[in-house]
Amino acid sequence: MNRSTHRESQKGLLIDFTKCIGCEACMEGCREANDLAQPSPGDPPARELGADNFTVVVPREVDGKEVFIRRLCMHCADPACVSACPVGALTKRPDGAVSYDGDLCFGCRYCMVACPFSVPRYQWDSNAPVVRKCTLCYPRLDEGQEPACAAACPTGATRFGPRETLLEIARERIRKHPDLYVDHIFGEKEVGGGSILMISPVDFAQLGFPASMTHNPLPELTWAVQKRIPSIVVTGTVFLGGLYWVVNRRMERARDAEDAREVEDARGAER
After folding, report:
1. How do the domains of the chain map onto residue ranges?
2. Closest alpha carbon to 197 in 189, 208, 207
3. What are the DSSP calls for 221-260, one per residue?
4. Based on the number of CB atoms within 10 Å of its own CB, is 40 exposed (0-12), middle (13-18) or buried (19 or more)?
5. What pTM was computed for the model?
6. 63-75 pLDDT, tens per residue?
7. Which residue of 8, 114, 145, 169 is most buried, as measured by CB atoms within 10 A?
8. Which of 195, 211, 213 is nearest to 203 (CA)?
């Protein structure tokens, strides 16, 4: 399957910040669907992603206007976390979801370092910790259902569907209402694009999103370095081996010279 066909088969979410009212129904639906720990009564609302918070709703105030934003895994088309995982615990599925297998994970946490959106979280308080994150509810996708957050949203702020269709919807909303939206679909091109698309009434940088990101998939950038590693290792090995031979040879000559002097001194003493 080539990349264009792969993109066309992907599903995704369109999150419209102008429609979000901050009710956190998406968070509750996510907890129930993924069997995540429920917050204790009186706990403040979760505003940061965590091992038991796969998505969060965060209020932001920009120029006197309150905007509710969502944070979750962006399900990149070419995920850095997948390329960084040495055991294949993370997988990019044809439907767009980046799935995770805790049974394969051995806790290296390379995915946490690789992710440009700082999404994966580690279970620091668990006796058998694993990395956890949003999986786009892929078990629900396999059953023909939409992700729990989209199903729970009462305002249509989160919409599920084919990625290409969602892009068309987003572009049409921006075209029809230029006074309501900034002309930017976050997630369309960032680090190669992904299955999560967002549109907003204010600039994304003002909402805490990265101000400038490459449009190239990160694995393509890292591969430019990684593919040179074998030649670097070979060259380095040859150089160090040669250096060792030179140093060792000099040391042998020095020892031979010292032995010759000792023999000569011994012969002189006998005379």
Report:
1. 3-217, 228-270
2. 189
3. HHHHHHTTHHHHHHHHHHHHHHHHHHHHHHHHHHHHHHHH
4. exposed
5. 0.79
6. 888 999 999 999 9
7. 114
8. 211
Maximal C-alpha separation, the chain: 111
Task: Give dist(CA 229, CA 212) in Å, integer.
Answer: 29
Q: Please state the φ and ψ torsions of residue 162, each to the nearest 5 degrees.
A: -60, 140
pLDDT at 9: 78
A 10 A CB-CB count for 266 gives 9
- Report the 3 state secondary structure along 39-103: CCCCCCCCCCCECCECCEEEEEEECCEEEEEEECCCCECCCHHHHHCCCCCEEECCCCCEEECCC
CA atoms within 13 A on the CB side of 32: 11
Residue 196: both structure tokens together: 């999560």
Using one digit for the tens of pLDDT, what is the confidence trace for 240-253? 555 555 555 566 66
Distance separating the N- and C-terminal Cα atoms of the chain: 90
How sure is the predictor about 226, in pLDDT bands with cuts at 50, 70 and 90? very low
| Percentage above 90 pLDDT, the chain | 68
Task: Decide which of 3.10.560.10, 3.40.50.620, 3.40.640.10, 3.30.70.20 is the CATH code for 3-217.
Answer: 3.30.70.20
Q: What is the mean pLDDT of the chain?
A: 86
Rounded to an integer, what distance in angstroms lies between the CA atom of residue 165 and that of residue 171?
A: 10
